[in-house]
């Protein structure tokens, strides 16, 4: 599958593309009425796999296969992506990897945007400026697909934003669905600003780990499956109903101060009994109130980001659902 060097080429290609008066966008229009699908990538600068979907879309001449509607590929965080790909030229594997990992964002996590972002005319932070620039493009989406990856080794997972129909993610190479995270997390994800209220359907997908080539394969399959499900490209019909594990986010965990540490390294989706202590520090221990699963834990036991970022999310007991 695509190398980081090839993804870098695709990065510079989309950076030089101008659509709707905004750089970092490539649009494909069938010329036939239909859905407007927005595929967003590198919302975090150290998550390059979404570029593989765009490269495949071009290479396979998918534009000729579009039967209706349009597809808009958007590189959300251009400046953070620039920092990431520039680090490929750093001499020394360890230092290069460190800089790439740090290229998540410049000033503001684009998945933790302020709710009033559209009104922040005088906010000079890069991600606010970029989000306001992209807002008119984001609002065009009827369907949004935001492709992410994680630092931890975990199974691919679908993040369903709002009341998303299961039919949209038929054939997605992910057995796990996360719901309600947008109502629990601090701030707003960029995808919360996609489309028009109450009419847009948005899927976020964690496609694997950041630089695992398999994440590129998954990103490609996500786009193809979504377009087939919408009848925008020819497919083999909807696959049979699939069984997926669904986790409904019910809470989150923050460290009160920098002294806190998790009591152990938790694994993703680990089941925890009610009353269990999960973190300790200079203050009261942190306990879970009810039985739950650990969702998107940070690697290790220490805080690796700002104290106002979640250390992990908590979910209600898992359910198996048909989708």
TrEMBL record:
Q: Name one GO molecular function term.
A: hydrolase activity, acting on ester bonds
Q: Which UniProt keywords apply?
A: Hydrolase, Metal-binding, Zinc
InterPro entries xrefs: AstE_AspA_cat
Q: Which residues form the Succinylglutamate desuccinylase/Aspartoacylase catalytic domain?
A: 39-169
Q: Does the keyword Secreted apply?
A: no
The question of whether Nucleotidyltransferase is a record keyword is answered with no
The cofactors required by this protein are: Zn(2+)
What's the protein here called?
A: Succinylglutamate desuccinylase/Aspartoacylase catalytic domain-containing protein
């Amino acid at each position: 599958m695509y190398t980081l060097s090839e993804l870098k080429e695709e990065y510079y290609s989309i950076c030089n593309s101008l659509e709707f008066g905004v750089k970092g966008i490539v649009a494909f229009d069938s010329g036939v009425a239909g859905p407007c699908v927005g595929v967003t990538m590198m919302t975090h600068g150290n998550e390059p796999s979404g570029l593989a979907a765009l490269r495949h879309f071009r290479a396979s001449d998918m534009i000729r296969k579009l039967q209706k509607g349009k597809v808009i590929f958007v590189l959300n965080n251009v400046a953070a992506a620039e920092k990431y790909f520039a680090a490929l030229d750093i001499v020394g594997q360890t230092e290069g990897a460190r800089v790439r990992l740090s290229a998540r964002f410049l000033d503001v996590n684009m998945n933790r945007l302020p709710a009033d972002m559209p009104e922040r005319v005088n906010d000079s932070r890069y991600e606010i400026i970029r989000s306001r620039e992209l807002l008119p493009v984001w609002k065009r989406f009827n369907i949004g697909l935001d492709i992410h990856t994680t630092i931890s080794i975990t199974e691919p997972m679908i993040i369903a934003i709002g009341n998303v129909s299961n039919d949209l993610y038929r054939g997605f190479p992910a057995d796990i669905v996360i719901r309600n995270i947008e109502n629990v997390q601090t701030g707003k994800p960029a995808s919360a600003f996609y489309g028009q209220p109450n009419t847009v359907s948005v899927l976020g997908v964690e496609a694997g780990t950041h630089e695992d080539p398999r994440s590129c394969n998954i990103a490609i399959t996500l786009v193809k499956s979504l377009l087939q499900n919408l009848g925008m490209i020819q497919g083999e019909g909807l696959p049979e109903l699939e069984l997926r594990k669904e986790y409904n986010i019910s809470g989150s965990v923050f460290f009160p101060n920098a002294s806190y540490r998790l009591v152990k390294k938790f694994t993703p989706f680990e089941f925890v009994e009610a009353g269990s202590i999960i973190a300790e520090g200079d203050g009261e221990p942190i306990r879970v109130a009810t039985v739950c699963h650990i969702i998107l834990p940070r690697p290790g036991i220490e805080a690796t980001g700002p104290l106002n970022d979640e250390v992990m999310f908590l979910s209600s007991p898992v359910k198996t659902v048909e989708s």
